Amino acid sequence: MKELEFTISPTKLTLSDVKKILLEKLKLKLSKESIERINKNRKYLDKKLISNDHVFYGINTGFGSLCDKKISEEDLKKLQVNLVRSHACGTGEEINSTIVKLMILIKINALSLGYSGVHLKTVEKLIFLFNNDILPVIFESGSLGASGDLAPLAHLSLTLIGEGEVNFKGHKMASKEVFDSFGESALELDSKEGLALLNGTQFMSAHATYAYLKLDSLFKWIHKISALSIDAFNCRLSPFDSKPHALRGFKGQSHCANQILDLLNESDLLKIDNKSVQDPYSFRCIPQVHGACLDVLKDFELKTTIEINAVTDNPIVFDQEDEIISAGNFHGQPIAMAMDFMAIAAAELGSISERRIYKLISGTRGLPAFLIENPGLNSGFMISQYTAASLVSKNKIFSHPASVDSIESSNGQEDHVSMGSISGVKLVEVVKNIHRILSIEIMTAAQAMEFRRPRKSSPEIEQMLSNFRTKVPYINKDEVMYILMSKSEDFISEEF
Q: What is the pLDDT of residue 148?
Protein backbone atom coordinates (compact mmCIF):
# COMPACT_ATOMS: atom_id res chain seq x y z
CA MET A 1 0.00 0.00 0.00
CA LYS A 2 1.41 3.37 -1.02
CA GLU A 3 2.09 5.74 1.85
CA LEU A 4 0.07 8.93 1.85
CA GLU A 5 2.09 11.96 0.86
CA PHE A 6 1.89 15.72 1.05
CA THR A 7 3.60 17.77 -1.63
CA ILE A 8 5.53 20.86 -0.53
CA SER A 9 5.03 23.49 -3.21
CA PRO A 10 5.08 27.28 -3.62
CA THR A 11 1.37 27.21 -2.69
CA LYS A 12 1.00 28.55 0.83
CA LEU A 13 0.95 25.99 3.61
CA THR A 14 -2.17 26.34 5.76
CA LEU A 15 -2.52 25.41 9.41
CA SER A 16 -5.15 22.89 8.32
CA ASP A 17 -2.52 21.35 6.05
CA VAL A 18 -0.12 21.15 8.99
CA LYS A 19 -2.71 19.45 11.19
CA LYS A 20 -3.50 16.95 8.44
CA ILE A 21 0.20 16.17 7.91
CA LEU A 22 0.69 15.49 11.62
CA LEU A 23 -2.50 13.58 12.36
CA GLU A 24 -2.40 11.41 9.25
CA LYS A 25 1.38 10.97 9.48
CA LEU A 26 1.84 12.05 5.87
CA LYS A 27 5.23 11.77 4.18
CA LEU A 28 6.63 14.88 2.52
CA LYS A 29 7.89 15.32 -1.01
CA LEU A 30 8.88 18.35 -3.07
CA SER A 31 6.92 19.55 -6.07
CA LYS A 32 8.67 19.83 -9.43
CA GLU A 33 8.43 23.62 -9.21
CA SER A 34 10.05 23.67 -5.76
CA ILE A 35 12.91 21.50 -6.97
CA GLU A 36 13.46 23.82 -9.92
CA ARG A 37 13.43 26.89 -7.69
CA ILE A 38 15.97 25.41 -5.25
CA ASN A 39 18.33 24.29 -8.02
CA LYS A 40 18.11 27.56 -9.92
CA ASN A 41 18.74 29.60 -6.79
CA ARG A 42 21.81 27.57 -5.78
CA LYS A 43 23.22 27.66 -9.30
CA TYR A 44 22.96 31.45 -9.26
CA LEU A 45 24.75 31.65 -5.89
CA ASP A 46 27.61 29.41 -7.05
CA LYS A 47 28.03 31.54 -10.17
CA LYS A 48 28.01 34.70 -8.09
CA LEU A 49 30.74 33.42 -5.78
CA ILE A 50 32.99 32.35 -8.65
CA SER A 51 32.63 35.44 -10.79
CA ASN A 52 32.48 38.12 -8.13
CA ASP A 53 34.86 39.55 -5.55
CA HIS A 54 32.00 41.02 -3.55
CA VAL A 55 31.64 40.31 0.15
CA PHE A 56 28.39 38.60 1.17
CA TYR A 57 27.49 38.33 4.83
CA GLY A 58 27.78 34.82 6.24
CA ILE A 59 28.72 33.40 2.87
CA ASN A 60 32.30 34.59 2.70
CA THR A 61 32.43 36.56 5.97
CA GLY A 62 32.21 35.77 9.66
CA PHE A 63 28.96 36.04 11.59
CA GLY A 64 27.36 38.65 13.84
CA SER A 65 29.90 41.25 14.92
CA LEU A 66 32.53 39.30 12.91
CA CYS A 67 30.76 40.28 9.68
CA ASP A 68 33.79 42.27 8.48
CA LYS A 69 36.13 39.26 8.67
CA LYS A 70 36.63 37.96 5.11
CA ILE A 71 36.84 34.17 4.79
CA SER A 72 39.05 32.53 2.17
CA GLU A 73 37.41 30.46 -0.57
CA GLU A 74 38.97 27.22 0.66
CA ASP A 75 37.43 27.74 4.13
CA LEU A 76 33.84 28.48 3.07
CA LYS A 77 32.60 24.96 3.81
CA LYS A 78 34.47 24.78 7.11
CA LEU A 79 32.91 28.12 8.06
CA GLN A 80 29.43 26.60 7.80
CA VAL A 81 30.30 23.53 9.88
CA ASN A 82 31.96 25.71 12.52
CA LEU A 83 28.80 27.82 12.65
CA VAL A 84 26.60 24.82 13.40
CA ARG A 85 28.92 23.41 16.06
CA SER A 86 29.59 26.69 17.85
CA HIS A 87 25.96 27.78 17.89
CA ALA A 88 24.56 24.54 19.37
CA CYS A 89 24.30 26.09 22.84
CA GLY A 90 20.77 25.08 23.85
CA THR A 91 19.94 24.26 27.44
CA GLY A 92 17.00 23.42 29.69
CA GLU A 93 14.17 21.02 28.97
CA GLU A 94 13.90 19.21 25.66
CA ILE A 95 11.02 20.43 23.51
CA ASN A 96 8.45 17.79 22.67
CA SER A 97 8.58 15.67 19.54
CA THR A 98 5.59 17.34 17.87
CA ILE A 99 7.21 20.77 18.05
CA VAL A 100 10.47 19.31 16.69
CA LYS A 101 8.56 17.86 13.74
CA LEU A 102 6.93 21.22 13.18
CA MET A 103 10.32 22.93 13.16
CA ILE A 104 11.56 20.54 10.47
CA LEU A 105 8.38 20.93 8.41
CA ILE A 106 8.43 24.72 8.53
CA LYS A 107 12.15 24.83 7.72
CA ILE A 108 11.57 22.58 4.69
CA ASN A 109 8.77 24.85 3.54
CA ALA A 110 10.93 27.98 3.91
CA LEU A 111 13.94 26.55 2.07
CA SER A 112 11.74 25.13 -0.70
CA LEU A 113 10.73 28.64 -1.75
CA GLY A 114 14.13 29.04 -3.41
CA TYR A 115 15.59 32.16 -1.80
CA SER A 116 18.11 30.63 0.61
CA GLY A 117 20.85 29.43 -1.72
CA VAL A 118 20.90 25.84 -0.43
CA HIS A 119 21.47 22.68 -2.42
CA LEU A 120 18.52 20.39 -3.15
CA LYS A 121 20.21 17.61 -1.16
CA THR A 122 20.04 19.76 1.97
CA VAL A 123 16.27 20.07 1.76
CA GLU A 124 15.99 16.39 0.90
CA LYS A 125 17.99 15.50 4.03
CA LEU A 126 15.49 17.46 6.13
CA ILE A 127 12.67 15.56 4.43
CA PHE A 128 14.49 12.32 5.27
CA LEU A 129 14.47 13.30 8.95
CA PHE A 130 10.79 14.22 8.87
CA ASN A 131 9.59 11.15 6.97
CA ASN A 132 11.46 8.74 9.23
CA ASP A 133 10.67 10.46 12.55
CA ILE A 134 14.35 11.08 13.25
CA LEU A 135 13.90 13.97 15.65
CA PRO A 136 16.88 16.04 16.78
CA VAL A 137 17.26 16.71 20.50
CA ILE A 138 16.45 20.42 20.82
CA PHE A 139 16.29 22.42 24.04
CA GLU A 140 13.81 25.13 24.95
CA SER A 141 16.33 27.82 26.00
CA GLY A 142 19.04 29.50 23.98
CA SER A 143 17.33 31.58 21.32
CA LEU A 144 16.85 35.35 21.60
CA GLY A 145 14.30 35.37 18.80
CA ALA A 146 16.46 37.43 16.46
CA SER A 147 19.31 36.51 14.13
CA GLY A 148 16.99 33.58 13.80
CA ASP A 149 16.45 30.88 16.39
CA LEU A 150 20.17 30.20 16.26
CA ALA A 151 20.76 27.76 19.12
CA PRO A 152 17.74 25.47 18.60
CA LEU A 153 18.21 25.42 14.83
CA ALA A 154 21.90 24.62 15.35
CA HIS A 155 20.86 21.52 17.29
CA LEU A 156 18.54 20.57 14.41
CA SER A 157 21.38 21.12 11.94
CA LEU A 158 23.87 19.07 13.96
CA THR A 159 21.80 16.04 13.10
CA LEU A 160 22.12 16.73 9.38
CA ILE A 161 25.92 16.66 9.56
CA GLY A 162 25.93 13.45 11.60
CA GLU A 163 26.56 15.03 14.98
CA GLY A 164 24.45 15.58 18.06
CA GLU A 165 21.65 13.36 19.31
CA VAL A 166 18.21 12.37 18.06
CA ASN A 167 15.13 10.71 19.46
CA PHE A 168 14.33 7.71 17.28
CA LYS A 169 11.83 4.94 17.97
CA GLY A 170 11.67 5.77 21.66
CA HIS A 171 15.44 5.90 22.19
CA LYS A 172 17.99 8.70 22.39
CA MET A 173 20.76 7.89 19.92
CA ALA A 174 23.73 9.48 18.18
CA SER A 175 22.53 10.85 14.85
CA LYS A 176 25.39 9.13 13.00
CA GLU A 177 24.30 5.78 14.41
CA VAL A 178 20.79 6.30 13.06
CA PHE A 179 22.08 7.44 9.67
CA ASP A 180 24.29 4.35 9.48
CA SER A 181 21.29 2.11 10.19
CA PHE A 182 19.61 3.57 7.08
CA GLY A 183 22.79 3.46 5.01
CA GLU A 184 22.50 7.24 4.87
CA SER A 185 25.51 9.54 4.78
CA ALA A 186 25.79 12.75 6.74
CA LEU A 187 25.29 16.03 4.90
CA GLU A 188 28.33 18.00 3.76
CA LEU A 189 27.49 21.66 4.09
CA ASP A 190 28.42 24.02 1.28
CA SER A 191 28.80 27.79 1.41
CA LYS A 192 25.79 29.64 2.87
CA GLU A 193 24.02 26.42 3.91
CA GLY A 194 24.78 26.43 7.63
CA LEU A 195 23.60 30.01 7.85
CA ALA A 196 20.43 29.23 5.88
CA LEU A 197 19.66 26.41 8.31
CA LEU A 198 20.33 28.43 11.46
CA ASN A 199 18.87 31.76 10.41
CA GLY A 200 15.09 31.64 10.61
CA THR A 201 12.15 31.74 13.00
CA GLN A 202 11.24 28.06 12.88
CA PHE A 203 11.54 27.50 16.65
CA MET A 204 9.18 30.40 17.30
CA SER A 205 6.80 29.56 14.47
CA ALA A 206 6.69 25.87 15.48
CA HIS A 207 5.60 26.87 18.99
CA ALA A 208 3.05 29.28 17.54
CA THR A 209 1.68 26.56 15.25
CA TYR A 210 1.51 24.01 18.06
CA ALA A 211 -0.28 26.47 20.35
CA TYR A 212 -2.74 27.45 17.64
CA LEU A 213 -3.68 23.86 16.82
CA LYS A 214 -4.16 23.06 20.51
CA LEU A 215 -6.29 26.15 21.09
CA ASP A 216 -8.35 25.53 17.98
CA SER A 217 -9.12 22.05 19.33
CA LEU A 218 -9.85 23.30 22.84
CA PHE A 219 -12.34 25.88 21.55
CA LYS A 220 -14.54 22.99 20.43
CA TRP A 221 -14.72 22.01 24.11
CA ILE A 222 -14.89 25.47 25.67
CA HIS A 223 -18.43 26.16 24.48
CA LYS A 224 -19.72 22.74 25.55
CA ILE A 225 -18.08 22.85 28.96
CA SER A 226 -19.27 26.39 29.70
CA ALA A 227 -22.79 25.45 28.51
CA LEU A 228 -22.77 22.57 30.99
CA SER A 229 -21.70 24.97 33.74
CA ILE A 230 -24.47 27.42 32.80
CA ASP A 231 -27.12 24.73 33.22
CA ALA A 232 -25.51 23.28 36.35
CA PHE A 233 -25.57 26.75 37.98
CA ASN A 234 -29.16 27.33 36.87
CA CYS A 235 -28.40 30.43 34.79
CA ARG A 236 -30.55 32.47 32.46
CA LEU A 237 -30.05 32.27 28.70
CA SER A 238 -31.19 35.84 28.04
CA PRO A 239 -27.57 37.20 28.08
CA PHE A 240 -26.92 35.03 25.03
CA ASP A 241 -29.72 36.54 22.95
CA SER A 242 -28.26 37.72 19.63
CA LYS A 243 -29.63 41.28 19.82
CA PRO A 244 -27.25 42.76 22.45
CA HIS A 245 -24.24 41.19 20.72
CA ALA A 246 -25.26 42.56 17.34
CA LEU A 247 -25.32 46.04 18.86
CA ARG A 248 -21.69 45.70 19.91
CA GLY A 249 -20.51 44.16 16.67
CA PHE A 250 -17.62 41.85 17.56
CA LYS A 251 -17.74 38.64 15.54
CA GLY A 252 -16.27 36.40 18.22
CA GLN A 253 -18.76 37.64 20.81
CA SER A 254 -21.77 36.93 18.58
CA HIS A 255 -20.37 33.56 17.57
CA CYS A 256 -19.88 32.43 21.18
CA ALA A 257 -23.36 33.60 22.19
CA ASN A 258 -24.91 31.69 19.30
CA GLN A 259 -22.94 28.59 20.19
CA ILE A 260 -24.31 28.62 23.75
CA LEU A 261 -27.88 29.13 22.53
CA ASP A 262 -27.54 26.28 20.03
CA LEU A 263 -26.17 23.97 22.70
CA LEU A 264 -28.82 24.76 25.35
CA ASN A 265 -32.02 25.67 23.49
CA GLU A 266 -33.51 22.22 24.21
CA SER A 267 -32.43 22.08 27.84
CA ASP A 268 -35.07 21.04 30.37
CA LEU A 269 -33.48 23.39 32.90
CA LEU A 270 -34.75 26.39 30.92
CA LYS A 271 -38.19 25.65 32.36
CA ILE A 272 -37.14 26.43 35.93
CA ASP A 273 -38.83 29.66 37.05
CA ASN A 274 -36.90 30.58 40.20
CA LYS A 275 -33.76 31.89 38.50
CA SER A 276 -31.76 34.87 39.77
CA VAL A 277 -32.39 38.22 38.12
CA GLN A 278 -28.76 38.33 36.97
CA ASP A 279 -25.97 35.78 36.89
CA PRO A 280 -22.31 36.32 37.85
CA TYR A 281 -20.06 37.70 35.13
CA SER A 282 -18.21 34.41 34.70
CA PHE A 283 -21.47 33.02 33.26
CA ARG A 284 -23.26 36.09 31.93
CA CYS A 285 -20.22 37.50 30.13
CA ILE A 286 -19.06 34.29 28.49
CA PRO A 287 -19.72 35.73 24.99
CA GLN A 288 -17.75 38.88 25.73
CA VAL A 289 -14.73 37.08 27.24
CA HIS A 290 -14.64 33.91 25.16
CA GLY A 291 -15.50 35.95 22.07
CA ALA A 292 -12.65 38.40 22.61
CA CYS A 293 -10.26 35.46 22.96
CA LEU A 294 -11.66 33.87 19.81
CA ASP A 295 -11.06 37.10 17.88
CA VAL A 296 -7.44 37.07 19.05
CA LEU A 297 -7.15 33.42 17.96
CA LYS A 298 -8.38 34.30 14.46
CA ASP A 299 -5.80 37.06 14.18
CA PHE A 300 -3.16 34.69 15.56
CA GLU A 301 -4.07 32.15 12.88
CA LEU A 302 -3.45 34.78 10.20
CA LYS A 303 -0.07 35.86 11.60
CA THR A 304 1.10 32.29 12.19
CA THR A 305 0.14 31.33 8.64
CA ILE A 306 2.16 34.26 7.30
CA GLU A 307 5.18 33.24 9.38
CA ILE A 308 5.24 29.55 8.43
CA ASN A 309 5.27 30.58 4.76
CA ALA A 310 7.94 33.25 5.14
CA VAL A 311 11.58 33.38 4.07
CA THR A 312 13.26 34.35 7.34
CA ASP A 313 16.94 33.61 6.81
CA ASN A 314 19.69 36.04 5.89
CA PRO A 315 21.07 37.01 3.43
CA ILE A 316 18.31 36.37 0.91
CA VAL A 317 19.33 35.26 -2.57
CA PHE A 318 17.22 36.86 -5.32
CA ASP A 319 18.36 35.06 -8.46
CA GLN A 320 15.82 36.68 -10.78
CA GLU A 321 16.71 40.18 -9.61
CA ASP A 322 20.45 39.37 -9.52
CA GLU A 323 20.76 40.55 -5.91
CA ILE A 324 21.89 39.12 -2.60
CA ILE A 325 20.35 41.24 0.12
CA SER A 326 21.32 41.19 3.77
CA ALA A 327 18.26 42.25 5.76
CA GLY A 328 16.43 41.32 8.96
CA ASN A 329 13.60 38.88 8.26
CA PHE A 330 14.99 36.64 10.99
CA HIS A 331 13.81 39.14 13.62
CA GLY A 332 10.95 37.53 15.51
CA GLN A 333 9.06 40.65 16.58
CA PRO A 334 5.90 40.03 14.49
CA ILE A 335 5.35 36.48 15.73
CA ALA A 336 6.67 37.26 19.23
CA MET A 337 4.09 39.98 19.77
CA ALA A 338 1.36 37.76 18.33
CA MET A 339 2.29 34.94 20.73
CA ASP A 340 2.39 37.31 23.71
CA PHE A 341 -1.09 38.65 22.89
CA MET A 342 -2.33 35.09 22.35
CA ALA A 343 -0.97 34.10 25.77
CA ILE A 344 -2.88 36.97 27.39
CA ALA A 345 -6.10 35.99 25.64
CA ALA A 346 -5.65 32.29 26.33
CA ALA A 347 -4.95 32.94 30.01
CA GLU A 348 -8.30 34.73 30.26
CA LEU A 349 -10.07 31.56 29.12
CA GLY A 350 -8.54 29.77 32.08
CA SER A 351 -9.26 32.65 34.44
CA ILE A 352 -13.00 32.79 33.71
CA SER A 353 -13.24 29.00 33.77
CA GLU A 354 -11.77 28.91 37.29
CA ARG A 355 -14.35 31.49 38.42
CA ARG A 356 -17.15 29.22 37.22
CA ILE A 357 -15.57 26.33 39.14
CA TYR A 358 -15.50 28.53 42.25
CA LYS A 359 -19.18 29.45 41.92
CA LEU A 360 -20.22 25.83 41.38
CA ILE A 361 -18.58 24.67 44.62
CA SER A 362 -19.72 27.69 46.67
CA GLY A 363 -22.80 26.06 48.19
CA THR A 364 -25.30 28.41 46.53
CA ARG A 365 -28.28 28.02 44.19
CA GLY A 366 -29.35 24.75 45.74
CA LEU A 367 -25.98 23.05 45.30
CA PRO A 368 -24.19 21.58 48.34
CA ALA A 369 -20.91 23.09 49.51
CA PHE A 370 -18.05 21.62 47.50
CA LEU A 371 -20.55 19.48 45.54
CA ILE A 372 -20.39 16.56 47.90
CA GLU A 373 -22.89 14.72 50.07
CA ASN A 374 -22.29 15.25 53.79
CA PRO A 375 -19.87 18.21 53.44
CA GLY A 376 -17.65 18.54 56.48
CA LEU A 377 -16.97 14.86 56.71
CA ASN A 378 -16.16 15.11 53.00
CA SER A 379 -14.21 17.93 51.33
CA GLY A 380 -15.39 17.08 47.82
CA PHE A 381 -14.18 19.48 45.14
CA MET A 382 -12.63 21.98 47.56
CA ILE A 383 -9.00 21.45 46.59
CA SER A 384 -9.55 20.84 42.90
CA GLN A 385 -10.55 24.50 42.81
CA TYR A 386 -7.23 25.32 44.50
CA THR A 387 -5.46 23.51 41.70
CA ALA A 388 -7.35 25.49 39.08
CA ALA A 389 -6.53 28.72 40.91
CA SER A 390 -2.85 27.74 41.04
CA LEU A 391 -2.80 27.19 37.27
CA VAL A 392 -4.54 30.51 36.69
CA SER A 393 -1.90 32.27 38.78
CA LYS A 394 0.86 30.59 36.78
CA ASN A 395 -0.78 31.77 33.57
CA LYS A 396 -0.87 35.34 34.85
CA ILE A 397 2.91 35.21 35.28
CA PHE A 398 3.34 33.60 31.84
CA SER A 399 1.21 36.38 30.32
CA HIS A 400 3.88 38.99 30.89
CA PRO A 401 5.03 39.82 27.35
CA ALA A 402 8.53 38.56 26.54
CA SER A 403 8.60 40.70 23.40
CA VAL A 404 9.00 43.93 25.39
CA ASP A 405 12.43 42.75 26.52
CA SER A 406 15.74 42.98 24.66
CA ILE A 407 19.33 42.24 25.65
CA GLU A 408 22.20 43.32 23.45
CA SER A 409 24.24 40.47 21.97
CA SER A 410 27.12 39.74 19.56
CA ASN A 411 29.23 42.66 20.80
CA GLY A 412 26.47 45.13 20.04
CA GLN A 413 25.85 44.14 16.41
CA GLU A 414 22.60 42.49 17.43
CA ASP A 415 21.42 45.24 19.72
CA HIS A 416 17.67 44.64 19.67
CA VAL A 417 16.14 41.17 19.88
CA SER A 418 12.55 39.94 20.18
CA MET A 419 12.84 37.22 22.85
CA GLY A 420 10.14 35.51 20.82
CA SER A 421 11.44 32.07 21.70
CA ILE A 422 10.41 32.78 25.30
CA SER A 423 7.03 34.02 24.03
CA GLY A 424 6.58 30.67 22.31
CA VAL A 425 7.66 28.48 25.23
CA LYS A 426 5.43 30.25 27.72
CA LEU A 427 2.46 30.33 25.32
CA VAL A 428 2.61 26.55 25.03
CA GLU A 429 2.67 26.33 28.85
CA VAL A 430 -0.38 28.61 29.08
CA VAL A 431 -2.26 26.41 26.62
CA LYS A 432 -1.40 23.27 28.58
CA ASN A 433 -2.66 24.91 31.78
CA ILE A 434 -5.93 25.95 30.13
CA HIS A 435 -6.47 22.33 29.12
CA ARG A 436 -6.02 21.31 32.76
CA ILE A 437 -8.33 24.04 34.08
CA LEU A 438 -11.08 23.13 31.61
CA SER A 439 -10.75 19.48 32.60
CA ILE A 440 -11.43 20.54 36.21
CA GLU A 441 -14.42 22.62 35.11
CA ILE A 442 -16.08 19.80 33.19
CA MET A 443 -15.53 17.48 36.14
CA THR A 444 -17.01 20.06 38.54
CA ALA A 445 -19.98 20.95 36.32
CA ALA A 446 -20.76 17.27 35.71
CA GLN A 447 -20.85 16.69 39.46
CA ALA A 448 -23.11 19.71 39.95
CA MET A 449 -25.54 18.45 37.30
CA GLU A 450 -26.24 15.35 39.37
CA PHE A 451 -27.86 17.61 41.97
CA ARG A 452 -30.25 18.96 39.30
CA ARG A 453 -31.70 15.56 38.51
CA PRO A 454 -34.19 14.47 37.33
CA ARG A 455 -33.92 17.62 35.20
CA LYS A 456 -31.79 17.23 32.09
CA SER A 457 -29.73 19.51 29.95
CA SER A 458 -30.00 19.50 26.14
CA PRO A 459 -29.52 16.23 24.21
CA GLU A 460 -26.05 17.27 23.02
CA ILE A 461 -24.84 18.19 26.50
CA GLU A 462 -26.39 15.05 27.98
CA GLN A 463 -24.57 12.97 25.38
CA MET A 464 -21.30 14.62 26.36
CA LEU A 465 -22.11 13.93 30.02
CA SER A 466 -22.90 10.30 29.27
CA ASN A 467 -19.56 9.89 27.48
CA PHE A 468 -17.78 11.67 30.31
CA ARG A 469 -19.30 9.34 32.90
CA THR A 470 -17.70 6.34 31.18
CA LYS A 471 -14.35 7.88 32.21
CA VAL A 472 -15.08 9.86 35.37
CA PRO A 473 -17.79 8.72 37.80
CA TYR A 474 -20.00 10.77 40.10
CA ILE A 475 -18.47 10.77 43.57
CA ASN A 476 -20.59 10.56 46.74
CA LYS A 477 -17.66 10.50 49.15
CA ASP A 478 -14.07 11.70 49.13
CA GLU A 479 -11.77 9.96 46.68
CA VAL A 480 -8.22 10.46 45.40
CA MET A 481 -8.95 13.37 43.10
CA TYR A 482 -5.81 13.63 41.00
CA ILE A 483 -6.61 10.29 39.36
CA LEU A 484 -10.05 11.53 38.34
CA MET A 485 -8.62 14.87 37.22
CA SER A 486 -6.15 13.05 34.98
CA LYS A 487 -8.97 11.03 33.43
CA SER A 488 -10.96 14.21 32.88
CA GLU A 489 -7.95 15.81 31.18
CA ASP A 490 -7.63 12.80 28.88
CA PHE A 491 -11.32 13.06 28.04
CA ILE A 492 -11.00 16.51 26.52
CA SER A 493 -7.73 15.73 24.75
CA GLU A 494 -7.66 15.81 20.99
CA GLU A 495 -5.60 13.42 18.91
CA PHE A 496 -3.25 16.28 18.15
A: 86
User: pLDDT exceeding 90 applies to what percent of the chain?
Assistant: 86
Residue type, 385: Q
pLDDT tier, 274 (very low <50, low <70, confident <90, very high otherwise) = confident
Distance CA 114, CA 203 (A): 20
- Structural domain boundaries of the chain? 5-200, 207-491
Confidence at residue 1, expressed as pLDDT on a 0 to 100 scale: 45
CATH dotted code for 5-200: 1.10.275.10
Count CA atoms within 13 Å of residue 424 on its CB side. Answer: 32
C-beta neighbour count of 412 within 10 angstroms: 9
Q: Is the pTM of this model over 0.90?
A: yes
What's the burial of 89, exposed, middle or buried (CB within 10 Å: 0-12/13-18/19+)? Answer: middle
pLDDT at 272: 87
Q: Which residues are catalytic?
A: 57
pLDDT, mean of residues 209-224: 96
- For domain 207-491, the CATH superfamily is Fumarase/aspartase (Central domain) (1.20.200.10)
Would you say 88 and 158 are in contact if contact means Cβ atoms under 8 Å apart? yes
DSSP result, 312-373:
--SSEEETTTTEEE---TT--HHHHHHHHHHHHHHHHHHHHHHHHHHHHTBS-TTPPBTT-S
